[in-house]
Each structure stands twice: as C-alpha cells, then as structure tokens.
Amino acid sequence: LSAFRERFSAINVSVTIGPHETLLEWLTGQQVQILVLEEQLRRRGWETLALGVERLVLVAPRGHSLLQHEHVTAGMLRTMPFVMPRSGTPFRRIIDDGLRRRGVGSADLLVNLETDSVALMVQAVRRGSGLAFIPQSRMPRGRELGLINVPGMYLQQEWFALRSRERGAPRAVQELYSFLTGTVARELLKK
Questions:
Q1: Which helix (H) or strand (E) holds 180?
Q2: CA–CA gap between residue 146 and residue 151 (Å, rounded)
C-alpha cells in the first residue's frame, strides 16, 4: 500500500479486516469495492485474480522439544497442542488438508485455541499454548520462536484480489485494482 500511495498520493485507501463471510457480504452490498482473500472464488459478476503465494511455517516456542529434532514426522504432531485458525476458514482448510495428506486428521490434534488473528497465534505460541502454522512473513524477528521442519509438508497460502465486474467503479478503485494486479505489486509480493 505504501508503494501505491507513492504513485497515487491523492487516493486514500481504507483497509478493513474481517471474517470471510462478512467481507463477501460487504462486496455484494457494495460496502467495499475490492477484497484480498486467501481463497479463489468463482461467482457470476465477480472477477478474481491471483496476487501471490506465501509459504506457511510451523513454529514453536524456543526450547520446545520438537526443535531438538532435525526432522519431525507428521505423526509426532499428534501429541502436541496447537493454536489454529478458526475451523472452516480458508486458512484452516489449507492446514487441515496438508496434515491429512501426511496422515494426520484434524481430530488427531489437540487444539488449545482457535483464532482468526495471526498476531494472537504468535503470542499464544510464545506463551507456550501450542504449535502454530503461520505465514512466513509473520515470523517474528528475534529468537523467541523456532521453525519445525516436517519433511514433505509444504503448505502455502494463496492470495486473490476480488471485485465486482460491474462497470462504473470509481476511478480510484480502478487504479487500486490495476496496481494490485500489476507487475509492481507482484514484484513487491515476491519479497
């Protein structure tokens, strides 16, 4: 957004974070013009474009026993407490699908906390509430969390821009959408 602001300083952008269902209702009701979602949606009258991909990493508090292992099997995760995204969300489905492919069902896990907030997930891991899968870009700098390597488990979150196909969107909205889906934004998202 700061790169967009540099190019279009007269356009103010308001960012609101909310539950997936609420955001879709707002787009339908034209309370918002553009959504950035972690799931590709196909609905008549909506346009969806891929923005980028981000790896999810498994984190634990420093000193956790699994950090002593060079490789952790998916089966070793069954006995561990977890901090997870809320059940039914796209973020949670990515994690559940990845674990299921490695032979671990969501019923096999001890989930201590469910939240839509990645910041809260990181805090909970720091305090020892469990392990968590988080976007790699949200890995805190410093030494309070460590990465757990589960060979063969590569989870990633995709990001999509979604807008109504209706003509007549304000020019500012058109400029923002063009910027988000253009080459400058794609290069920034790769970093």
A1: helix 171-180
A2: 16
